[in-house]
């Protein structure tokens, strides 16, 4: 019965998200939640609605309300926090909010999960390889801090990668898929069901968001997806006493996590605020090397998929296979980089310039973030 509920949750979220996205698109035009390319930083050529995340949230909620049987405090707290971020995202997509205000609200949503839902990172793998203890138990105060930082950071990390059509939705679907497999292996069936509902919503939204995008998910969608993945990863993995309890979620969420971390480090080292947008994200670098937008998105899909498989293997204690896959990812990135440089040089020397596809909208973010718009990076 658990597995049937999971399957129906996925199908329901997909159908309701797919059906409601055109309605949300029309609604966005009516309330003025439209991204108008009014400056050079916005690359898309025509006004595009940007509250598509409402459809993602709607499809997800319908599936969870219909098929979830676990209404514990942790589940209620998770949905309350998601609701707060959804309201914040809609307001921000309609009228840009101050980054500090958004940051404070995200912390409040995380604290609700921590204190009301009793969801915390209290144990993780011991980084000291010479220690006889395979795991570390955190004191209460440190557990709260680590949990809040994790939730807020992942929330914004997914927001950061929302810079190409279909990128955030597709990567979130892949990460949700990995989460489902790991949750099932840990016998966390409620987490698996919620993860499938999240995955179904992403797939239901993708047909309208893939290049050329008819609608952007905006902060409404990207922060919701990041928040849900962060909270579910804590419930499904961090509470395990396995030696790899910390490594699994870090690798599973590796693409947005490391991209955001390197972006902040890069900005700080260059004397800039870590909240100021730039064109240094991984998807920017791949695109600037000469890959088309679709090629860039598929490359990042592949990287996220391999990282997800690596996390699954680690969760099953298959360390050697996981390490081999990680090596494959590094080789893949190296080859892609070399190919990209060659393609970029060829375009420059041939004088052809950008191809036709490069003229299509590059922004899937709430306000064309990562392709010249700093809206997402403000969080």
Automatic annotation (TrEMBL):
Q: Which GO terms describe its molecular function?
A: metal ion binding; phosphotransferase activity, for other substituted phosphate groups
Decide whether keyword Ligase is in the record: no
UniProt: Mg(2+) binding residues: 159, 219
Q: Which GO terms describe its biological process?
A: cell wall macromolecule biosynthetic process; cell wall organization; lipopolysaccharide biosynthetic process
Q: Which GO terms describe its cellular component?
A: plasma membrane
**Origin species:** Candidatus Ornithomonoglobus merdipullorum
The regions listed as transmembrane in this protein's record are 6-28, 49-68, 74-91, 103-123, 135-154, 166-184, 190-208, 220-238, 244-265, 297-315, 321-340
> CDD domains in the record, alphabetically?
GT_WecA_like
**Protein name as annotated:** Undecaprenyl/decaprenyl-phosphate alpha-N-acetylglucosaminyl 1-phosphate transferase
Basic and acidic residues composition bias: residue spans: 351-360, 367-379
Localization annotation:
Cell membrane
Give the membrane topology, semicolon-separated if more than one: Multi-pass membrane protein
Annotated InterPro entries? Glycosyl_transferase_4 (IPR000715), PNAcMuramoyl-5peptid_Trfase_CS (IPR018480)
Entry-linked PROSITE patterns: MRAY_2 (PS01348)
UniProt-annotated stretches for the region Disordered: 348-379
Sorted alphabetically, the keyword list is:
Cell membrane, Magnesium, Membrane, Metal-binding, Transferase, Transmembrane, Transmembrane helix
